Amino acid sequence: MAEKVGVSPIIPRTVGTQKHRANYIANDGDCCTYYRVSIFYPYLDDLLSSFNERFNSNSSLISSLSCLLPSKVKKNTFDDLQMALEFYKDDLQIDSYSSTLKGEFELWQMKWETETVIPTNSLIDSDTLLNCPVDIFPNVYTILKIFTILPVTTASVERSFSTLKRIKTYLRNSTSENKLNGLALLNVHRDIDIDIESLIDVSANRKKRRLNFKL
C-alpha cells in the first residue's frame, strides 16, 4: 500500500508513556515486523473471534445443510440431513422423515455419482442450483436455496438508519416522533397495501388540524 501511494513506511515514534496506542517492539527497526505485530495480528485475531462467535452456535446446522453439496453428498447419509430438515420443516411443507424426501436425497446422490465434473468448493454456488431441477428435486432445491441466501450477518439496523436518513432531512427536522415512526414503517414495509381513502378520512375527521379538507 505504501508503494502504491508513493510513501516510505516508518515506525511511529516511541515514548515512555503512551496514551492512545501501545509501544510495539520491532527488531532492528523493521517496519514489516512492526506493522505485522501492531495491525495484522490484532486484525486477524479479531476476525477469527468474530467468525467463532458467529458460527459456533450454528455450526451443526450449517454442517447439516452442507450435506447436499455435490462434493459432499456422496459421503453423507439421509440421517446427516435431519437437523436441517427439522429446522426448516415449515419451508418444506413435508414431513422430514417421509419417503418422498428420502427418495429425493437418494436420487440427488445418484445424480452426482454419475457426473464427471463435480464442484469441489465448500460453498454452494449458482451452478449447483442450475443443476438442480425444481420439478425433480423440489425439496432439495428449497434447502439449497436457503443455504445460498443464508446471511453471514444481519443488516436490519443499517437499513433502519438508511431509511431514517431519507425521511428525516433538514427540511423535516421538526417532524414529531410518532409521525417519524409511522413514515419509517411505511418506508420499510412497502409490501403492505394501504387504503389511501381511509387515511384521508382519518385525517379529515380529526378535530385539531391547521387546514380544512374540502371533500
Automatic annotation (TrEMBL):
Q: Which residues form the HAT C-terminal dimerisation domain?
A: 135-191
Query: Which InterPro entries does the protein's record reference?
Result: HATC_C_dom, IFN-induced_PKR_regulator, RNaseH-like_sf
- Sample GO molecular function, one term: protein dimerization activity
Recorded protein name is: HAT C-terminal dimerisation domain-containing protein
